[in-house]
Amino acid sequence: MTMHNILPIFRRELRSYFNSPVAYVVIVVFLAIVGWFFASNLFLMNLASLRVMFDVVPLVFLFFVPAITMRLLAEERKSGTLELLTTKPVRDVEIVIGKFLAAWALLLGAMVPTLLYFATLLSLGSPDMGPILTGYAGLMLMGGVYIAIGVLASSLTENQIVAFILSFLIVLALFLLDKVLMYVPEGFASTMEFLSMDYHFSNIARGVIDSRDLIYFGSLLGFSLYLATLSLERRKW
């Protein structure tokens, strides 16, 4: 696996986002939703905090990320360009990583304008920098895992709508695991809590950097990309 092969795929995929209205529409809708909650919190409730953004963005990601990943491999399969791509000296894992990085870069691009909210807080006072910095880091880690799951879902089907629904259901399940602990036997509660995405994000967003949270995000991200690679390779079997 070499960056020499990954970078052209990354650039091609990122360019395709901005050559169509998809990236612009999704980013504008994302910023409109997050901005509305931040402004409401600031002007209506007189609370100068990014806490509401860190509460809302994970919910928005549930829809936002499947929308930007559903076409990554499904469209290639349907149009037949995936087979054309694989005739070049590039490995399946390089295709997966290149497309993953492009979607992650788009997510980062959507998050950058939210730094204006951070600048607003700095102009109003002296916010606690620790939870803000770790909150942003947690959002990017969560977004990375969701994107990896979206790439996996897109690798399993030629239908973009099916890919969206499959990705949405998986990330929704991971998000809700720690919300239903009261309904499961006590012996399974701790396991379900550990598997919950929001549980680990909440730890990081509070300013606590724990190796268990980093291992969770890294393992889930890597495993999803590994399964996506296997899904691509199955066409050769």
Task: Break the fold down into its secondary structure elements and pairings.
Layout: H1 3-18, H2 21-44, H3 51-69, H4 74-79, H5 81-86, H6 92-111, H7 115-124, H8 129-155, H9 160-176, H10 186-195, H11 197-205, H12 211-233
Helix pairs in contact: 1-6, 2-3, 2-6, 3-8, 3-9, 6-8, 6-12, 8-9, 8-11, 8-12, 11-12
Secondary-structure element series: HHHHHHHHHHHH
Average pLDDT value?
Answer: 83
Structural class: mainly alpha
What is the helical fraction, as a range of percent? over 70%
Q: How would you portray this structure in words?
A:
The chain is mostly helical. The chain has 12 helices and no strands. It has helices at residues 3-18, 21-44, 51-69, 74-79, 81-86, 92-111, 115-124, 129-155, 160-176, 186-195, 197-205, 211-233. It is globular and about 55 Å long. The model has no long low-confidence stretch (mean pLDDT 83).
Short description:
The protein is 79% helix and 0% strand. By secondary structure, it is an all-alpha fold.
Overview features:
single chain; globular; 237 residues; mainly alpha
